Amino acid sequence: MHTCAHAYHPPAPPLQVAQWFNTPAPLTWQSLRGKVVVLHAFQMLCPGCVEHGIPQARRVHEAFDTGQVQVVGLHSVFEHHAVQGTPEALQAFIHEYRLHFPIALDAPSDGANPIPCTMQALALQGTPSLIVLDRLGRVRLHHFGRLDDLRLGVLLGQLIDEAAPAPASPPADGCDANGCPAP
Amino acid sequence: MHTCAHAYHPPAPPLQVAQWFNTPAPLTWQSLRGKVVVLHAFQMLCPGCVEHGIPQARRVHEAFDTGQVQVVGLHSVFEHHAVQGTPEALQAFIHEYRLHFPIALDAPSDGANPIPCTMQALALQGTPSLIVLDRLGRVRLHHFGRLDDLRLGVLLGQLIDEAAPAPASPPADGCDANGCPAP
Amino acid sequence: MHTCAHAYHPPAPPLQVAQWFNTPAPLTWQSLRGKVVVLHAFQMLCPGCVEHGIPQARRVHEAFDTGQVQVVGLHSVFEHHAVQGTPEALQAFIHEYRLHFPIALDAPSDGANPIPCTMQALALQGTPSLIVLDRLGRVRLHHFGRLDDLRLGVLLGQLIDEAAPAPASPPADGCDANGCPAP
Amino acid sequence: MHTCAHAYHPPAPPLQVAQWFNTPAPLTWQSLRGKVVVLHAFQMLCPGCVEHGIPQARRVHEAFDTGQVQVVGLHSVFEHHAVQGTPEALQAFIHEYRLHFPIALDAPSDGANPIPCTMQALALQGTPSLIVLDRLGRVRLHHFGRLDDLRLGVLLGQLIDEAAPAPASPPADGCDANGCPAP
């Protein structure tokens, strides 16, 4: 007999960012530890992002104290790079759409790969995508396309009420809340 | 020194119902114990109810398993009684709007009071109103007017993750989770 | 060889009304001669009417001078008569939805026919329906279901620019703009 | 005594275009003579254009035969030139938003003026702007901001029913339908 393991919630891979906007200092998952994080991956020329994803990100940003829930935009350009891929293009978009939450320009890949680095690491299927991290920095939602406010709200309500992490102490034996990796 | 008490969440007063629709048997708070309950109080001739409250109730009903979240409609008629106050009127409305969750016709008051009984007991300010009960049958939201899906979702997410009640056993000393009443 | 006739635009059959609301005196097609008329047939318990038809009627009413375009509501109850068929029910609906244009309660049929009289005479397929009359009182649109504002606007623009009727003088030979009736 | 003049409807100034999209040959007002023309001036980073103006232009394009009503987009970039002012940027936008009507990139001004040439000539106040020309190529609407579909439809209905121009013959004395210019 054994006790069944909890669902596996992997930690989010590190953000790889060409440039940050709307934040005095670069953000890392580590610096956001203790908060629920809503990451909206978008492209400025993606109609579904402009119609649905960006307004939803704005509503979440306005509904919560940033000490509890932090919205982060991720501009993951995988097409029309020349047009929408520059920091200047993103800056103009942020200005015109009056966005006030932190936004990262996903780091372009080296070589011929059109998919930027964080988008690759997160295995995003496209834009808009929604990644939600719990207070421990673990991926709890990985969603491509539209998600309605009710379902997003339910998840946020659940994650807000989960315990914040205890003061960090390195696991003695390589195990953490997700289990113990094989050597 | 003392430990601060938790927020006081009173139990919901009993439903007083003239007639039930869409349910094989009358519902009581006791029969719903263990579920999160979303009670939508409305009037069929109230524009804000028809535009916002009823569609939201339908979305919640469709989003959740009824073992977890139970939507209940409450037709609390406090004006135009002759027109919208009868069971026949409510039945026609339910039919035309294709509503499938349980709906109660709030019991009319005796005498000259136009406010029906459950609306009085819940101290509703008008329609639409939204009352949310936790798994222990306690009132956790009491809202008059429109509430957006994101905020409603957050509350539902929090309440869904709260523990269901333990098997009932009468408190030995008159105390319950809300505290101890003075004798 | 011959010259093709113009499209046949029949005059609207007379309104048959149980009771008028929002008008000091009953309206007739004759009294509206010279104006473009937009007749919205609806039922207060018809979701498509409440969501689309009534708001559109309100927009048309607000967009035009009533000397040019007159909106008229027609409450054509063909189901749930006991609930929505009375003058009191219609009065309550008009009050709650704050409607300010003239509205007629379609005269109920004698006998067992559930379809009211004007609805029969106009051969309406259901609600919502939109009937548009030109300045000569002729039916120029007969539409069941939703019609978008752009297409409705185009028709109104065309009809507004058509000539108003000349001072009435009975045709010498029984002919009018629509042709000559057989004796 | 004299006959009062009709309203003055000036002919539209010539289009000045850096590049055309979605048309096999450049358009001119002359080539569109005989049609009603709806010119939507926009910028791809203007939220009101993306939310309202572009969807409206698409609806008009879909509602009419292009022999009667021709929609033309005009990308009049007066800010963020580096980002949205290039033909490549406009091409990407047209592709992502699946626009199928002819679109012109307004010719940039020489020198320091950020306002492009057609925007200057039409004295547009900003984006979105709506210019409607009658079948004679005269400006009949000059609107900055949002215009609802009902009002736009009314104007189009009126202009559609106006007579198309007679075969061109140069006025003998310099006069045209708008009057006679002083020598």
Structure in words:
- 4 copies of one chain form a homotetramer.
- Chain A has 183 residues and is α/β, with parallel strands linked by helices.
- The first copy, chain A, has a domain of 119 residues: Glutaredoxin (3-Layer(aba) Sandwich), CATH 3.40.30.10.
- Chain A is 29% helix and 19% strand.
- Chain A is built from 6 helices and 6 strands, in the order βαβαβααβαββα.
- The first copy, chain A, has a 6-stranded mixed beta sheet.
- Chains in contact: A-B, A-D, B-C, C-D.
- Chains A and B meet through α2 and α6 of A and α2 and α6 of B.
Strand-helix topology:
4 copies of one chain form a homotetramer.
Chain A: E1 17-21, H1 29-32, E2 36-42, H2 47-63, E3 69-75, H3 81-84, H4 87-96, E4 103-106, H5 117-122, E5 129-133, E6 139-144, H6 149-160
Parallel strand pairs in A: 2-3, 3-4
Antiparallel strand pairs in A: 1-4, 2-5, 5-6
